[in-house]
Amino acid sequence: MSIQATRLSAIRPAGAPVLSVHELSTVFYGRSGPLTAVDRVSFDVAEGEVVALVGESGSGKSVTALSIMGLLDSRVASITGGTIEFDGADLRAMHEHEFSRLRGNRIAMVFQEPMTSLNPSLTIGRQLTEGLEVHRGISHHDALRQAEALLGSVGISDPARRLGGYPHEMSGGMRQRVMVAMALSCRPRLLIADEPTTALDVTTQAQILDLIKTLTAQSGTAVVLITHDLGLVARYAKRVNVMYSGRLVEQAGVQRLFAQPQHPYTRGLLASMPRLDLPRQDSLMAIEGLPPDLEERDAGCAFRTRCPVAAARCSEPQPWVDIVPGHRAACWRAAGSAV
Q1: Separation between Cα atoms, residue 115 and residue 175, nearest integer Å
Q2: 243 near 310, Cβ under 8 Å?
Q3: How many Cβ atoms are within 10 Å of 57's Cβ, its own excluded?
Q4: Which DSSP state fits 264?
Q5: What are phi and psi of 281, to 5 degrees?
Q6: What are the residues facing 250 on neighbouring strands?
Q7: Helix axis angle, 172-184 to 124-136, nearest 10°
Q8: Can you list the alpha helix ranges (DSSP code H) found in the chain?
């Protein structure tokens, strides 16, 4: 175990979450001034748990992930508030050289598109062995041996031959398997999977996510699953955080969220998804309209311009309403609250 990992373990209180995000805010700097892309987001993830971040494209899910990973381009974006604690250590307080020892080692990420994440000029073997050599301090020979085993563990046939190949010689599903192998090579405490099955066929999607769930369960890795697909959430996640226009609007356990959604946006997402556990649906509901431009968003509920039950009070800041322990929604109407 590295000195950094030892220090993190020593300061982590018993029973504390692996990742704890509190009131995180991230802005992008545009011509008209700073635009808040992530607005006071809070959630946590326990050891061995899969927690989902769900929402439409542009809702702030990936920006949240990049903020946690410390991968924002400082020329155009920055974190303006909140805390990000990993095993009790404040990631925002770390110097970059210290953070870089964690990134790819104790904290890993699977990105949306493996073809743009893998280096096209390096062999698969070199890209797999680099992290092992840097973070684990092992020889190139031993790293190659582990890389071969990793490729085999993610279901790639003839792994020894594939080590000498390049990303363009693989299918999309195989490249994503390589990304999973890279992310899990150092047995991270935290894995962020950002739309890990985008553009893959349904069968390959299930294989990739089954693989992530199996491999992370074996090591007790905490997983943040970022997706817009509620079907994947129902199958793989334990808890769900629903995002809209950079803000969290509902948080609940998976079964509770599907059975009793409280926020109108969550209801809209569920109504727009085919479900086998309900009577035959002749048509699916569409959420009319578009999310607000960040320049035009105000302190009120960002969903109110698309909400079928919006009222005058929705132009005010929405309070969090606790429905039952572990389930809350940012809506005046949640749990029958009067507007």
Answers
A1: 7
A2: no
A3: 9
A4: H
A5: -105, 120
A6: 242, 329
A7: 10
A8: 3-11, 61-69, 96-102, 114-117, 124-136, 140-153, 159-162, 172-184, 202-219, 230-236, 254-259, 264-271
- Residues 261/271, Cβ–Cβ less than 8 Å: no
Global pTM exceeds 0.85: yes
For the four alpha carbons of 21, 17, 243 and 320, in that order, the dihedral sign comes to negative
Segment 129-156, tens digit of pLDDT: 999 999 989 999 999 999 999 999 888 9
Cα 55 to Cα 326: distance, rounded to the nearest angstrom: 19
Distance between CA atoms of residues 120 and 182, nearest Å: 15
* Cα gap 288→264, rounded to integer Å: 12
Q: What are phi and psi of 116, to 5 degrees?
A: -95, -10
| Digit-coded pLDDT (tens) for 181-239 | 899 889 899 999 998 887 677 887 888 888 888 888 888 999 999 998 888 899 999 99
DSSP at 227: E
Residue-wise pLDDT tens digits, 2-35: 444 444 444 444 457 999 999 999 999 988 889 9
The answer to whether 188 and 218 are in contact (CB under 8 A) is no
What is the DSSP code (8-state) at residue 187?
-
In the chain, the amino acid numbered 80 is T
Mapped onto helix, strand or coil, the DSSP state of residue 50 is: strand
Closest CA to 124 of 154, 157, 169: 169
Exposed / middle / buried, residue 141 (Cβ in 10 Å: 0-12, 13-18, 19+): exposed
CB 17 within 8 A of CB 45: yes
3-state DSSP call for residue 78?
A: strand
Q: Are 227 and 195 in contact (CB under 8 A)?
A: yes
Element housing 77 (H / E): strand 77-86
The neighbour count for residue 302, using CB atoms within 10 Å, is: 25
